[in-house]
Amino acid sequence: MAHQSRSEDATASLSELPPSAKLVAKTLEHEGELTQPQLADQTLLAGRTVRSALSELEDADIVTSRSSVIDARKTLYSLADDD
Description:
Helix content is 53%, strand content 12%. The protein is of the alpha+beta class.
């Protein structure tokens, strides 16, 4: 097959990212949708490190973000869907 699936592409992209980004992705895989502060609590990483990891994960199309319906000031992060 010439085409890689989206999950294979994401796995290849993830392998090139720093350990903090891998930890954030794995946490989202296990916990589901979380905010930046929740990710910092779950991973024990500094907020700045979580923000950087999320930025790298979004650039690699591994993570998506959306505004919270309950509180529009909060952003929720989750793993990108496999389509």
